[in-house]
Amino acid sequence: MRFVSIPKAMLDKLRTIREMLRIFRSGKELGDVAVLKLTLFSDAEVPGEHSELVLGREEENFRAIELDALKAMPAGSFGEAYARFMGRNELMPFNFSGRVRSLFARYPVSIRYVRVHDMIHVLLGFEADFVGEIGVYAFVAEQNYNQTLNRAARAARLFGKLMFWSRRRIQAAEARGVALAATAKVLVAERLETMLHRPLDEVRQELGLADGVSGP
Predict the structure, then answer these.
(1) Per residue in 93-123, pLDDT tens?
(2) Which of 46, 109, 132, 182 is placed for a possible disulfide with 126 were both Cys, Cβ 3.0 to 4.6 Å?
């Protein structure tokens, strides 16, 4: 009987997928799932203009975010608005395990973006529906985070063109995302976790988002 030899690279990918499924079922450290998916397609992200800045955010990135603590923050704070956003969209903060920390040097911007994606939604005032996602990706592409995220932004824009029934809303979201990116600091490189206790309006002002954002 002849046995088919499976290449090691393929076996490694199958093990990664199995681990992703295990983490997803456990409901813990869900950020690991998004990061492990990155490893299926490349050994490392292509370094970009923000890579060095983001590498300096490792400590914030791997400090666990507790949703109950955010809910207890003062009304009108960034953290409380973030908790409300997560609650109404049935989402959990993306916390990571030590395994992902060992990958941070290889995928710094991508991993950091996984962590702060929902915070960026709140800061920009975009909801978690598809129109809101397109608006966020327009912002991300304009800030040029990295090649991987730019590809995701192009895919989102392509799918948006198929949603002809929401064309005006999508075009408005894209235009607002681009406009906000022109004045904002590079959000993926900011210490957003240290700002959660502060008033949302104050945080937006400091990050260059005071104009063009309405509501949390």
Answers:
(1) 989 988 889 999 999 999 999 999 999 999 9
(2) 132
- Alpha-carbon distance of 176 to 213, in angstroms, equals 9
Tell me how far apart the alpha carbons of residues 118 and 83 are, in angstroms, rounded to a whole number. Answer: 10
Please tell me the distance from the alpha carbon of residue 130 to that of residue 82, in angstroms, as a whole number. 18
Separation in Å, CA 111 to CA 8, 57, 160, 164, 196: 25, 11, 25, 32, 19
In angstroms, what is the C-alpha Rg of the chain?
A: 18
- Would you kindly state where each structural domain of the chain is located, as residue ranges? 47-206
Question: What's the CA gap between 156 and 72, in Å, rounded?
Answer: 34
- pLDDT score of 141: 95
Residue 126 to residues 33, 146, 166, Cα–Cα distance (Å):
24, 21, 15
What distance in Å separates the CA atoms of residue 214 and residue 198, rounded to the nearest whole number?
18
Cα 184 off chain centre by? 16
Question: What was the pLDDT predicted at 214?
Answer: 57
CA dist list (Å): 97 to 35, 36, 101: 11, 11, 7
The DSSP annotation for 153-204 comes to HHHHHHHHHH-GGGHHHHHHHHHHHHHHHHHS--GGGS-GGGGTTSBHHHHH
* DSSP sequence for 37-59: HHHTT-SSPPP-TTHHHHHTTHH
Q: What residue type is 180 in one-letter code?
A: L
pLDDT, one tens digit per residue, over 32-56 is 888 888 888 788 999 999 999 999 9
